[in-house]
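Morning run. Coffee first, then this:
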Amino acid sequence: MEVLTITKDNFDTEVLKSDKPVLLDFWAEWCGPCRMQIPIVHELADEDDTIKVGKVNVDEQPELARKFMVMSIPTLISFKNGEVYKKAVGVQQKEQLKEMLK
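And here it is:
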């Protein structure tokens, strides 16, 4: 499944109203560790169609970053049934991301 670009405009539809668990990667273009996280996030999205994976560019979506108190990036937040489920800061391996969605 493709990795979605999440914005304040599609957040409710793609995340809060999703019938699947959602993993969001809060990132920025200039962030080195964020670039290390990108292939891991994409690999997870490609392997598992029972989840939804999205990316939130904190420079373009500061409202979402503030709403979820993202202070460092990458920050990964999982959602289940429209609620924050788990949160992790820093580069996460694929197995750690899978655990966030269980």
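The first helix runs from residue 11 to 16. Good start to the day.
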